[in-house]
Each structure stands twice: as C-alpha cells, then as structure tokens.
From TrEMBL:
It comes from Pseudomonas nicosulfuronedens. GO terms for molecular function: oxidoreductase activity, acting on paired donors, with incorporation or reduction of molecular oxygen. Residues 28-293 form the Luciferase-like domain. It holds the Pfam family Bac_luciferase. It comes from the Bacteria. PANTHER family: BLL6902 PROTEIN, LUCIFERASE-LIKE MONOOXYGENASE. One of its GO terms (cellular component) is cytosol. This is LLM class flavin-dependent oxidoreductase.
Length: 343
C-alpha cells in the first residue's frame, strides 16, 4: 500500500450561533449533536459564536466550554470560535483556557477573535465602543505572547500548560485586513454591519497582497456564507424572512446596519450574504464567489433564530451532499480513502 497526497479545493466548515427565541438547556446538547453529525458528514470544521447577554438571540456566552464537550464527542473535526470578543476577555485567562482545550482536543482548536460591535454588551461590561480597536490590539498581542511561550513578567513566568502551535491557528474577524496579514493570522470574512460595501473579492485580495512572507504558512481565509436550501426559504411567512427582518431591525435600532428592507427582501439577503433556494442555484452562486484555495475554508451558517434542530441537520446534509461537492470539495473520509492506493 502506498500513499498519495490528495489536494482539496478548500475545507468545509459550519458556524453555529446557538440561536433560539428563548434559552433551553437542550440547545447545548443539540449543538453537540450537530458537531457529531457534521463530523460524520465529513465536514472539516465546526465553529461557535459568542454572544453575551443573549444579544441577537445568541444563547452561548462561553464557546470554549461547549467546544470542550464537543472535543470529547468527536475525533477529527476542527473546533473553532467564530468569534470570541477579545475586548471582553482577560487575554491571559483566555490563553489558559484555550491551551487546555487544545490539549484535550489534540490540537484541533482554531481560535477566532474580534473586537465586537454590540453597544449593549459593551455597556454591560462597563466599556464603550470608542477606542475598542486599540484595546483589541493590546489584548491580542498579550494573547499572542502567552501562546508563543514568551515571558509574561519580570520573573519569566510563561503559559502553563504550553500551547504548542496554537499561536499559528489564530483567526481575526475585522475589516482591518492588512493588520491581520501583517500578524500572520487567518482572516474570517463574514458580513460586517459596521463595514462598507467593498466586494468580498477585493477584501480578500487586499489581505493576500499584504501577507508577510516571513510568517510561517500561507494566508488563509474563512469565508462565512449563510446557506438555506429550500424553494420556500424566503417566502412570505417563512421563519427565515421573519428572523432576517427582525435582525435587520435591531441593527438599525442600534445604528450599525446597512441593509434597508425598503429596497426589497432579496436585496437585504444579498447585503447580508444569505443564499437560499435550490441547491444547484446556491452552488452556482458560490462558484461565482471568490475562489478558495486548499488553506481556505467555506463556513456555512444554516440557522437563524427560529431554525429548529431537524431543519439545521437537513441543511448540513444538503450542503455536504449536493452543494459543496459541486464546488470540488470532498468529505474527509473520501480524501482519506483516496490517499491510499494499492501498491
């Protein structure tokens, strides 16, 4: 038996924001079941978003805790945060928790970070939005120092347990892509309600051009797209339509949204990067998007606030069976089989 290297066009992940109209303990169990199902379907990564105080009906303030449970119930799938709001974390404590999780999961943690933009959460933490980027940069550097094993005080204290290689698995969600590239981190590119309307392809091109070749590895992009297969996904009265319009209204209320319902619901969906309808149509739309390489990831979000567990599971199955393979993706199991051929 000999082995050969099989290259995939990109890696496939899913993002779960643990949305729900109200909190129920079973939400966390269902989230873990989605990780198990995604691994069986061959997904390469699963990502959890952090929401403090149930902002936007996100019910998970502690993603690393839930990812620890996911680590025990899976063996292969990468475990990502998309994102942790670094401004509302102690950088050294986050490094400690992340290091322990990375050890438990045998090096599967992908640590995604951002500065946050929700004014309600900032106010609850006794913070303001002004100056948040400077504060984020300071905490990110402190986090990097800890993960890299650098001395943290005059006595030479270092992070214990050590986080071997985790500093090379940092991701950032921000419009300041040149800084992400300069730091050698991956770029999480999701619809940003505080940013302008610059095309995704241009943002990614800026990031790749700014990459410092002195860094180990290559530039890597995690492109987040909301994907809702189904002919009636955006029909009048659908849960998708209701949830999206409620989301846009909240954005406009707190002064950060750019989507305008007066322009029509399809325009709103386009502004938010939401794809829906026939799987073949969704695949064609994704094919026309920015090409992704072997170090990049397509991250699908398949739930809004009212999406139930069974529907979310069907969406993941459709993505893995009908949409991603049409773009050249292969499930992990298929890639593993292809690497072994008879001598």
């Amino acid at each position: 038996m000999i082995r050969r290297t099989v290259h995939s066009s990109f890696r496939l992940g899913f993002l779960n924001r643990v949305y729900a109209p109200r909190f129920e303990p079973r939400l966390y169990q269902q989230t873990l079941e989605l990780f198990e199902a995604a691994e069986e379907l061959g997904f390469d990564s699963g990502w959890l978003a952090q929401h403090h105080f149930a902002s936007e009906n996100g019910r998970l303030p502690s993603p690393l805790v839930l990812l620890s449970a996911a680590a025990e119930r899976t063996r292969h799938i990468q475990l990502g945060t998309g994102i942790v709001v670094l401004n509302q974390e102690n950088a050294l404590r986050l490094a400690e928790d992340a290091s322990v999780l990375d050890l438990i999961s045998q090096g599967r943690l992908q640590l995604g970070l951002g500065a946050g933009f929700d004014p309600d959460s900032f106010a609850a933490f006794g913070q303001t939005l002004e100056g948040r980027h400077g504060q984020y940069d300071e905490r990110l550097e402190r986090l990097r120092q800890a993960l890299a094993g650098e001395a943290l005080n005059a006595e030479g204290r270092v992070l214990r347990p050590a986080a071997s290689g985790l500093e090379r698995r940092l991701w950032e969600a921000t419009s300041r892509v040149e800084q992400v590239a300069a730091r050698g981190n991956g770029l999480i590119l999701a619809p940003n309600p505080t940013a302008g309307a610059e095309p995704r392809s241009q943002v990614i091109a800026r990031y790749r051009r700014a990459w410092n070749p002195a860094h180990s590895g290559t530039p890597r992009v995690a492109l987040v797209r909301a994907v809702f297969p189904g002919a009636d996904a955006a029909a009048d009265g659908s849960t998708l339509r209701q949830d999206i319009l409620a989301y846009v209204e909240r954005q406009r209320r707190i002064g950060i949204g750019h989507a305008d319902p007066a322009q029509g619901f399809e325009t709103v969906l386009d502004n938010l990067g939401v794809l829906h309808g026939d799987p073949a149509k969704i695949a064609e739309q994704l094919r026309a998007d920015t090409p992704l390489g072997a170090d990049d990831q397509l991250i699908v979000q398949v739930q809004t606030t009212s999406t139930g567990f069974a529907e979310a599971l069907r969406h993941l199955e459709t993505v893995a069976r009908d949409i991603a393979p049409a773009l050249g993706w292969q499930p992990r199991q298929q890639r593993a089989r292809a690497q072994e051929i008879p001598a």
